[in-house]
């Protein structure tokens, strides 16, 4: 039996997962069902929107299932009798029962170098922590989060100018190349899993809105890393009085202390922020309800720099 004819149930939700799904469809894999999270309200107008994975599945006329809790609503998968469950950023922890529904052991694409950064936010977390490398892991799914045997793993460098958007794009490309290279081998039973070293395990949690808040008490490195981790979406933020001020790009200018910590000032036509161990140049900003602006335009729109009250 040709491995591409085997029935694969694909579980995923965000854009990075939708890109892999579409490439698998184009490669000719037999995907009769896609499972994704329920439609969610997004944006300032809170418009109910379906996931990126759902959009791709509908584009190719693939059935879409959006259970509230898959562990209680798995009959559709059970009746399908799939050969493989393949997940990539689905967003729910699966029970042993669900994981047993395929002929093959279920596999997961995870955007980190496991056992490091198990959990829901590996891309954000490596940027927050200033890591220099990350990667993609294809692993066996089991009930314990991201702890199964590793079937394949490849790494990439994190460049100084990488942010969430650029790093996600790199990891998306890596997932596609690894799918083409390793999924056929897995379906032909030619990959041997390697047990993860639990002593090296680290974890990352689901990101909350308050995690995107930039602290004026942070170091310059911590501040810059957080900006990278949340750029270009949704954008790390400070408060200017009672309004959001989002920062999409910044750089560390120096380790000088010339102003009180938290002071915003202009020097050499740069918009500078004094932190406790150095000066940050704010380069791309957005006031609440306004357009994203380069610092030069932002400065031109401010009548008095002292009118900005950051916290």
Question: What would your notes on this structure say?
Answer:
The chain is α/β, with parallel strands linked by helices. It contains eight helices and 17 strands. The chain has helices at residues 15-26, 52-59, 75-80, 96-99, 122-128, 164-187, 220-229, 295-300; strands at residues 7-12, 30-35, 40-42, 47-49, 63-65, 84-88, 107-110, 118-119, 133-140, 150-157, 203-204, 236-240, 243-254, 264-267, 270-275, 278-287, 292-294. The strands form four sheets. It has a seven-stranded mixed sheet. It starts with 6 loop residues before the first strand and ends in an 11-residue tail after the last helix. The model has no long low-confidence stretch (mean pLDDT 96).
The tally of helices reads 8
Biggest sheet strand line-up = 5-2-1-6-7-9-10
Q: Return the structural class.
A: alpha/beta
Radius of gyration: 22 Å
Order of helices and strands: EHEEEHEHEHEEHEEHEHEEEEEEH
- Beta-strand proportion: 25-35%
Q: Low-confidence parts lasting 5 or more residues at pLDDT below 50?
A: none
Mean pLDDT level:
96
Overall outline = elongated
Cα distance spanning the termini: 62 Å
Q: Provide the helix percentage.
A: 10-25%
Main sheet characteristics: 7 strands, mixed
């Amino acid at each position: 039996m040709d491995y591409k004819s085997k029935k694969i149930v694909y579980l995923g939700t965000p854009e990075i997962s939708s890109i892999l799904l579409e490439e698998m469809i184009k490669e000719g894999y037999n995907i009769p069902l896609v499972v994704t999270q329920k439609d969610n309200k997004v944006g300032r107008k809170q418009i109910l929107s379906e996931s990126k994975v759902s959009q791709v599945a509908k584009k190719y006329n693939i059935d879409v299932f959006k259970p509230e809790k898959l562990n209680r609503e798995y009959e559709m998968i059970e009746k399908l009798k799939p050969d493989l469950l393949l997940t990539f950023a689905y967003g729910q922890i699966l029970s042993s029962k669900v994981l047993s529904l395929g002929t093959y052991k279920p596999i997961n694409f995870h955007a980190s170098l496991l056992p490091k950064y198990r959990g829901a936010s590996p891309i954000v977390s490596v940027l927050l922590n200033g890591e220099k490398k990350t990667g993609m892991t294809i692993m066996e799914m089991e009930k314990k989060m991201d702890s199964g045997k590793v079937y394949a793993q490849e790494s990439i460098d994190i460049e100084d100018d990488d942010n969430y958007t650029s790093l996600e794009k790199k990891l998306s490309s890596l997932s596609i190349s690894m799918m083409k290279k390793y999924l056929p081998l897995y379906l032909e039973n030619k990959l041997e899993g390697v047990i993860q070293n639990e002593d090296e395990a680290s974890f990352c949690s689901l990101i909350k809105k308050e995690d995107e808040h930039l602290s004026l008490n942070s170091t310059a490195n911590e501040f810059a890393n957080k900006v990278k981790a949340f750029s270009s979406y949704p954008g790390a933020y400070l408060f200017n009085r009672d309004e959001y001020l989002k920062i999409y790009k910044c750089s560390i200018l120096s380790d000088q202390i010339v102003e009180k910590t938290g002071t915003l000032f202009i020097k050499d036509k740069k918009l500078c922020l004094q932190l406790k161990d150095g000066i940050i140049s704010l380069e791309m900003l957005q006031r609440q309800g306004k357009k994203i602006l380069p610092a030069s335009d932002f400065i031109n729109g401010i009548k008095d720099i002292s009118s900005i009250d950051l916290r």
